[in-house]
Structures are given as C-alpha cells and as structure tokens.
Amino acid sequence: MSKTIDYYHFLISPWSYLAIKQFNQLRETHDLVVNYKPIDVMQTFDNMGGLPPAKRHPSRQRFRMNELKRWAAYLDVPMNFEPAYFPVNQALAAQMVFAAGGASGNSDAAKFSDAVLSACWAEEKDISDESTLLDIANKCGLDGADLIAKARQDEFAAMLQSTTEEAHNKDVFGSPTYVINGELFWGQDRIEFLARYLAA
Question: What is the rounded CA–CA span in Å between residue 94 and residue 155?
C-alpha cells in the first residue's frame, strides 16, 4: 500500500533543488504519493524564526555557500551557485503547482515543481517571469496558458496562503520539509533518515 508524504518547499530553495534526484528515487522505490505544497518564503522566515540569506551574518553566508558547493559536488548535481535571478517572487509559480493539482499528488505538478527549481538553479531563468513559466509548463506536458490563467484565480492565491499557515502549524520552518505521519524531516541532508523511516 502506498504511503503519503506532504512535501513543503520554496520554489527558489537551493536545498530543494539539490534534493530532487534523491527524493524522486525514494518516491519511486517506496511507491509514495507525494503532495507538492509550495509555501511562502518570507512569511516562513518571519513567522518561524529565520532570516533570508542576504540578512544573515557574513560567516553564515560563507558557510552556506561552501555547503552548497560541497553538496552539489557530492551529489553530482549541476548548479549555478549565484543565479542571475535570485531571489525572485515565486508566488505565481507556486499557485501554478496548486492549480496543476500538486497538493493532491498530481505527477504533472511534481514535474513542474522540479522544473521550476531547475530553471532557477541550473538554467539561469527567471521563475517569476510569466513567459518563462509558460515555457516550463508546456515542456512538462501541461497547457501553460491555461494553467497560468487558472493559477491567477483567487482560489489558488488563497491556497498558497492557507498551505503556508498549515505548514507553520506543523512546525515547518524551512525547505525542503517532508512530513509523514506527523514526523518531520527537514533538509536534503535528512533524506537518508526519511528513507530509513519508510523502510521501517
């Protein structure tokens, strides 16, 4: 029987980008149903005790950069460590994930979410740009124009807000966070612990 995971993430998170390959392999191995639930970045920092990278102490900024380089090399994931379009507003992209059924385990929405992260961190694309999102959606087999129109509806703006609040109520404070049976696994470096949990 399949198991369900709620996957809370920022669509501009380098750590969520680094986790794509590992998590997708885990999803296939364990026949997981994954609800893709992007959440608001700044509300998460403000409400859950964090700071955006640019506001952190320089020592923390340097360590973050070193860790990104170490993990990208270790995982053999191509990555631009200082993308041209970061940070940017991810709201429309997030609403597109919801409009595509991401919160209810739709596999096309999962592909789109992963593609948005890759566009930011490997392809030097502006994921706040509508034409960029249109192209990404089309390449994922979705009707990009229809999806954008649908995503702009109040329903999906409200869903982004309510999902962000839902995440905070579950103690989610960063990206990526995987939640299963009330257990939280935060960070791409915790996927091994998630794997052990699923195996048990």
Answer: 13
| CATH assignment of the domain containing 112 | 3.40.30.10
pTM over the 0.90 mark:
yes
Q: What are phi and psi of 101, to 5 degrees?
A: 90, 20
Domain region containing 84: 3-199
Residue 25: both structure tokens together? 């392999």
CA 185-111-186 angle, to 5 degrees, is 10
- Quick one: which of 78, 94, 79, 90 has its CA closest to 36? 94
pLDDT in tens, 75-110: 999 999 999 999 999 999 999 999 999 999 999 999
Q: Which of 123, 133, 131 has the alpha carbon at shortest distance from 94? A: 133
Report the SS3 class of residue 79: coil
Q: Which two tokens stand for residue 160?
A: 């982004």
Question: What is the number of structural domains in the chain?
Answer: 1
